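Re: Re: token formats

Sure, here are both.
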Amino acid sequence: MHIRFPTISRRLSIGLCTVFFSGACLAQSFPDKPVSLIVPFPPGAATDTIARTLADKLTEKWGQPVVVENRAGATGSIGSNYVARSKPDGYTMLVGTTSSHTMGPNLFKNKTWDPIKDFTPITLLAWAPNVLEVNPSVPAKSVPELIALLKKDPGKYTYASSGTGSSIHLAGELFQSLAGVEMTHIPYKGASPAVMDLLGGQVDIMFDTVALSLPHIKAGKLRALAVTTTQRSSSLPDIPTMQQAGLKDYEMAAWIGLLAPAGTPEDVIAKIETDVQAILQTPDVKKRLFDLGTDVSGMSSAEFSELVAKELPRYGEIMRKAGIEPGN
């Protein structure tokens, strides 16, 4: 009796088929247990609200619990590091932002995670434009008028931020650089106390998120001059972009996106991307994001990856010009 062993090429083909069908089965069965969405910031902010909205919709769609877990600290680094070290199977994902993923990493010399090598971007959920706003006591009703005012009295006017190296801070630094003006930076521990002092007149200017300042702008308690994205905000359609207001090279777009640990199977990434993008197009989710002062994105995984790779060095350069040195 002769036993025939498979040839090398046949064994290779069998192996490739096994791998292919295993991947297909994995994507079809995903998820078959609870999924965690890690938010690297405290509860209550727009990122957390969007994450919880997405979690509720995914729970309905997948028939498995999708739970939001807040792991805040170190400009988003604590939560990001946790996801980077998690098993790459799609069951632990990061709801990251510009601050946590492309700005924050430039603030630390000794990083325990890499924003590009350790992650696979899945899809961009929303754009969160900042708005250049002033206390009504500031005698400027447009960006050109504000620039003229700042050039007349360099350093006299103050601008608030949610902390050194935050998106709000860098929006102000980029403005100073392109407009050729000088303001005095006043950092706060979070955007909320900064807005309170802006409302009270303790500071003059701020590049705040539309989400946080929208009620105050609508009430006439703050004066909006421009948004920092290249397109107008759907929440403030009458307010020009910085480029429309005269600073043609100005672009500072905060984003909120979904990322998985590097090495997560491509089929699983594709399924999550497809399902999340479908959710983002539902009318109730669109309205929810609109009410938060954000705009739905739905950017693909490939486009999102390109965005992260482009932004990381760009924000590093803005910080270098502003004299912000990375710490430990």
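Second one below.
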Amino acid sequence: MFRVEFGKSGKYCDGVSRRHFLQVGVAGMGSASLSQILHAKESAEQHGVKSKETSVILLWLDGGPSHMDLYDMKPDAPSESRGIWNPIHTNVPGMDITEMFPLQAKCADKFSLVRSLHHNNGDHFAGGHWMLTGRGGASGARTPGQSPCFASMATKVLGPRDPSMPAYVSVPYASSIGLRPGYFGGNFLGVQHDPFQTGSDPNNKNFQVKNLNPAKGLSIERLQERKALLKSFDQLRKDVDQSGMLNSMDRLDQKAYDMVTGDKARKAFDLNSEDENIRDRYGRQTWGQSVLLARRLVEAGTTFVTVHFGGWDHHWNLKSGMESYLPRVDQAVSALFEDLAQRGLSEKVLVVLCGEFSRTPRMNNGGNGGPPLSKGTPGRDHWGNSMFCLMGGGGVKGGRVIGSTSRLGDSPADRPVRPGHIHHTIYRALGMDPGIHFLDHSGRPTVAIDHGEVIHELF
């Protein structure tokens, strides 16, 4: 087994203290075999899906952002329902958004809004599972993931756009409702299809991604010698292995080795080498710098990057929470679209912004079951019956609004869209056949997406 040690580490999310090393099983480093990739591409072409080199950046608003306070304002609704802020016009006629998004209002022609998204579930875990896997099965009473994340399925088939880069990365970590990697994980595809997590705050002055630099005193030459020696021992085990597991482990070893010994991945993760003015444009805080790192990764050849924006569960104190969060989102999202355009990457990178569900159209009294205002100022509760999803780039047309909600914003009024529609659309942008099947734990073939269709208006 090829192992590169990296000194001590803290406790992992499972609570077990382990030595920090890069070894077989490192999350997100494995990719599909060449035969799998060729078969998937052939299948996609047979179904009319064109081969592409697109990547995806998913900005995940963990906790559930309110559609009526961000992208689906209802200024004519009763006072207890409509948002605290006023809508403003964007550079796209008819697409109004919150006044808290003045920067996005200037570049709305670069993205589109799906306003009729829904899955009708107000459970954090069920909602997160629906949005990230396209299937039900999880709930607050049964939190483990039941299906792979759609990003894991995509990167299993497509691999990285550049072989020296990890296919699937989460910045700074993969977390769905406090579960790591939670519903971002590969589940029955195997841990090798979990995302690689940077594990530290990109906004820190001394930000450094763990596992990308050999331990002190362990040179690249010594790594090469150790690898050659271990390969001769491993071959004997592979000759008697019937499960194929060791071959899979070897692919993980190779990806780990390539990343440590090569320059491209380390340079892509080196955020300190980025132009200071560009860093300022994204915002000198965790969310902004995480989005900038995501851009660097897809530019270098990573296929799928998720960025975690946590803390959207505003049952009370919604006003102060939004006043803190929305300017950061506005700066990071607008900077990303403008940066991609200036770099000629708009057609190569799809940006997606969403959360597990939305919030109730009607504001509560801040009591959360107790006396009014006993918890704080009014907020909104869980709501999965009407949600939003922002999408732009990667072939998805900008300046379009898909669907609408009722006068009170409580349900789709036209063009209802489910999570599967979002996933179909992402797969179209990636050039992946949504009809491909994967074997689950029982050996039963499971289709990548079992409902919905491409949102054709976006193309």
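The domain at 4-10+20-458 is CATH 3.40.720.10 (Alkaline Phosphatase, subunit A). The first helix runs from residue 34 to 46.
- S.
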